[in-house]
Amino acid sequence: MLLAKRSRLNRFPLLLALTRRFLSSSNLYDLYSFKPPPSLSHHQTPNPNSVANPEANNQKTKKSQKPRYRPPSSLDRTGSKPASSNLPFDFQYSYTESSLTVRPIGLREPKYSPFGPGRLDREWTGVCAPAVNRKVQSVEELVEEKEDMKLEEKRRKIREKLQGEPLTAAERKILVEKSQKLKTKSQVNLGRDGLTHNMLDEIQNHWKRAEAVRIKCLGVPTVDMKNVCTQIEDKTFGKIIYRHGGLLILYRGRNYNRKKRPVIPLMLWRPHEPIYPKLIKTTIDGLSIEETKEMRKRGLAVPALTKLARNGYYGNLVMMVRDAFLFCDLVRIDCEGLEKSDYKKIGSGALFSSYI
User: Fold this and answer.
1) Distance (Å, rounded) from C-alpha 335 to C-alpha 310?
2) What is the mean pLDDT of residues 134-140?
3) Distance (Å, whole) CA 145 – CA 142
4) Residue 335 to residue 345: CA distance in whole angstroms
5) Cα–Cα distance between 63 and 301 in angstroms, integer?
6) CB 91 within 8 A of CB 195
7) Backbone angles phi, psi at 94, to 5 degrees
8) Run of H or E including 54
9) What is the pTM of this model?
């Protein structure tokens, strides 16, 4: 079809000249950077504007492009003040994963803030973010520092103000029934890391919609459920109104105001775990090296008292071991399938002098 049109134009020279003139004056090149084929541009004179100043011509033809969409990030803190929180306790990654009596002796990696650069006005010591303004340069200095009594008094006043008058038996029963699994699916899971810092914000979010929140506790922290309950009430200023095994129901208090909830800055990543003292010593206190080796060989032949399931409930473990000590001086527990760090924490937090 194109050959037929071209042959017709060759028959009429005047029509061919008009067509070439029309193509030469076309603004397709200016708008769309159109380049005609060589057969049509052979007798076409170049555009003087494009030859004289090609850069200016390109600036006219190119449209101003919009900046590429970039999703908002929590690391973008330019022009804003770092988040400040007046909660009267030190910020830690986990408040229940290790015993309070076991203090770290060092750091595995250089200290860095898990909240992100410039997002929190508290200084991160590598283990925690202290509630008071103190310059702690090492872990040893952190151990020597004692908690300020004013913070403890402030914590007690906040808890009493939020709780108000104690619940009656009827009110407690209604809240427990509303928080059961058949009534609501809302639940906070406390796992092998224990009560983490970000869980405090999650509990506050559940308290926006209900007066009580259900907490399911599994994993290593359940060895000492008393410590778990104490830390939850202490850090959230709530009240545990029901407990059955690892199931807890936490009440927010009569005077709770969600608009005045505390500011809890979130940790963006998990900090490095500090170095704790060695759990298994070379020799047992009061025994020689040979006696310790002999006792370990005897312990391997003792039948296992129980086998721990991965991420299970270990609330009855301490009582089982104490009862077993009445009949035997060695107790063996099967921890096959658990993480190496898990059974080390179980051994340090079980409050008994046996080897796993």
Assistant:
1) 9
2) 57
3) 5
4) 12
5) 81
6) no
7) -135, 140
8) helix 54-61
9) 0.71
